[in-house]
């Protein structure tokens, strides 16, 4: 039997999720919900399913759903759906406060529902290549740059962009944080539009992370240095290289990456978890840990604005 999938929130992100759900085997895009009824109707007309005008009606016809509503509504929408028996893929960040993130996690546990968080880079094909070759990271450098967006300007660049790399770094290092230094500048908005953070871990690893939403070009890169080599990944190009010492100096070893759409992989994994009751690759707890670090960095930056 096909899994009945739905999308709550029919903006640009929700529309993209509806598109991919409509393409997955073993999945029926059953419903689209949005407070803007015309927007929900337009997405449903394009990709399938019905447009509904309430969460009650939505929960009656779906088994699993992407929640792509504004972050401030993640807790209310996510908890209501899980209470009604729906598995949830919550777009990142999991919430805008740790209290809300905790409420989502506790609701998923109480009702036995899947709660996956949409940290999409974990499903980028280059990540698999990195994970296969990673022994112990000693230094990590990440850059995530973007032109100025027309969305998400109610939050700063840390919660908008940097949080992707923070979640990945926590996943790769898996050691307690001992210190965080952060700087940022508000340029186009009232919140930080460019930011840098240096994170030190108990095991000695250091991560240097930069994010900007006022760059003239787009960049999504991470380099991971370990004892015998370093790995360089480009999320955007889905390309990777490994550099190590050879007989004639530093040599580059090409890494073959089988390119694929990360969102397709993410939603296929979510569907499998929902069908089989498997734990998601990016759990609510992992999403909350990334949020905790992102909020810490944000608070350190914003406190400097008031000095």
UniProtKB/TrEMBL annotation:
Residue ranges of domain Gfo/Idh/MocA-like oxidoreductase N-terminal in the record: 4-119
Domain of life: Bacteria
PANTHER family: BILIVERDIN REDUCTASE A (PTHR43377)
UniProt protein name: UDP-N-acetylglucosamine 3-dehydrogenase
Boundaries of every GFO/IDH/MocA-like oxidoreductase domain copy: 154-224
UniProt GO molecular function: nucleotide binding
Organism in which the protein naturally occurs: Oceaniferula spumae
Pfam families associated with the record: GFO_IDH_MocA, GFO_IDH_MocA_C3
